[in-house]
Queue: 2 jobs
Job 1
Amino acid sequence: MEKIILVTGATSGFGKAIATRFAKEGYTVCITGRREDRLAEIKGELEQTYGVKVIALVFDIRERSQVEASINDLKTQVPHIDILVNNAGLASGLSTIDEGDIDDWETMIDTNVKGLLYVTRQIAPMMRSRAAGHIINIGSTAGKTVYKNGNVYCATKFAVDALTQSMRIDLLPYGIKVTAINPGMAETEFSTVRFHGDEERAKGIYAGVKALQAEDIADIAWYCASLPPHVCINDLTVTCLTQANSFYAIKEAERVKP
Ligand code: NDP
Ligand code: 8X3
């Protein structure tokens, strides 16, 4: 039977890598994002390289009506969804609570929490009706331990953690797996977005470290999804070798070499 995955936020970073990994495994891949040109490019690449079907959905995940319309359209194109990866998200700004930009806060809450809920509310009933499926939520080490200036971003990822646990309970009777993958620092467009397009400042975050790469997270997502039917990874936290948690990390040069 055709295997189908829906990956939100697939125009870059983890989402693009996960879509690519599952295309390589023969999945029909549904990809989403706001950047239509990138979605078209990725669709072309994956279809040509792996010979799979790719469906691109352009919507802003913060807009409930857009999410509902796009997923209603998707339902006319695919018979079911095996895997939903709730990946679309961002950090916007890095300020103390007394100086934070309220627009940044709203963007993070609307994207990381409300957007994830809008998509899940559409897809979970599809999975329930087949009593099968797997939801993979991309959380963060920031959803496990807070760090200075992380305030609202951390709060959204703590919310993802709570929602992951809740979904697993609510969907338990239907045999639907729910997994959280919580990465630490990873080299994607994340920091450029966090610093509102300041690429130099973003580069500084990854200077002197071998951060996680998007493909690392894609491999982990594939591992979680390819386990036997009775096995569900509930919660997985992964960092690069030089990071212990949200706020404790060293540079590669500080590591004692064997
Ligand atoms: P990227 O910036 O590379 O990718 C983010 C993706 O989210 C893009 O495809 C973007 O698409 C999509 N997205 C953002 N806002 C919206 C929106 N309003 N509507 C639709 N899509 C949106 O970052 P990452 O790959 O690193 O981030 C992916 C997830 O991983 C996020 O949830 C992030 O919080 C989390 N994460 C990242 C870590 C890191 O250090 N990189 C570590 C831990 C977790 P588009 O702009 O085209 O809409
Ligand atoms: C992204 C990782 O440490 O920048 O979720 O918050 S961090």
Note: Residues 140-142, 150, 184-185, 246 surround 2-hydroxyethylsulfonic acid (ligand 2) (CB under 6 Å).
Job 2
Amino acid sequence: MKILVLNSGSSSLKFDVWETSPSMIADSSDLLLAQGAVERVTNMEDALTSVFRKLHQMPVDAVGHRIVHGGDRYQTSVLIDDQVEAGINALSVLAPLHNPHNLAGVRAARRYLPGLPHVAVFDTAFHHTLPMHAYAYGLPWSYLTEKGIRRYGFHGISHRYVSWRFAEHHGRKRADYKLITCHLGNGCSVCAIEYGKSIDTSMGFTPLEGLLMGTRAGDVDAGAILHLIMHEQQAPADVLKLLNSQSGLRGLSGVSNDMRDVLAKAKTGDERATLAVETFCYRVRKYIGAYMAAMDGADALIFTGGIGENSAEIRARVCEKLGHIGIHLDKASNTANSREDRQIGKGPVEVWVVPTEEELLIARDTLRCILKIPHE
Ligand code: ADP
């Protein structure tokens, strides 16, 4: 089956076309037929027209959509009908920077390709197994049960994909392992996966919580935010912008949101860039330690995302002080130039780099929804 995978953002529409089938999934022989993006999108239907122009009118059988927030309503990927579309819309209040754009893509694609099945694959769904003690904040009970103020977690598609790949390399099931997966890209999160289930992750109610990211602050005391609003008279909308797009590597270093630039500047001895890199690595290390505690150890630590896949230096700095918990990087394999899945530390906790392939997982889930076969 040929699946068009759409990832619609605030101003861009990324697309992949994958050929997949149950037997191709079984031996990992799914084929990427096309890939591209339309930038500076103002009208999603026009953008789709240019996608099909780029695809030379290649016929597809179904469409898989990446949706950032599924709340606690969507615990797995689902076929989209009007009710699901309304559900994604209702969740826009929880993810105002993402869901409205995802939804615009869904609406335009359903109008443009009305005869095809459309499937929603959620970034939150993999984390629906979080136990209550991991997703509850220490707020009054009604805020959890009535207002839905809780931790949801994101990047679930990536954490799920790389943990599945790790198990596949061992000829086993994800359910056989305790894994810590680090997705370090523009957005960054760590996930604790205990015997196949996500039991904790660093992002929370929104993708703002946890690690330091390209432009997002990660963990900040809520009191500091209140201070800015109440005593510094900053408007909530400005604070939202501050935390989402002016903070993180960019804000601390004053250089860039791109780790390559920040590392280069740090090498010149720049104090702020050095601090940004150290804060970034320190936070990842702290979460790894926390998740070792949460799971009473781990079988493997997996790096993915643009930074996790490409920066031997960041991986080495993250793992620097983790020897006492069984994490030892092999210097030669860590620095080897490769784009493949690879082991970079022997143990007792194996360390791996697994390039993420979120679009492939979206294509596979789309197929599984249509054929009504269980999700892995
Ligand atoms: P997104 O989260 O938007 O999908 P990616 O996962 O592609 O982004 O990660 C993009 C980030 O990866 C860039 O901003 C850059 O910081 C980082 N990156 C890519 N290559 C390298 C590298 N060789 N060294 C350090 N960082 C890198």
Note: The mean pLDDT is 95.
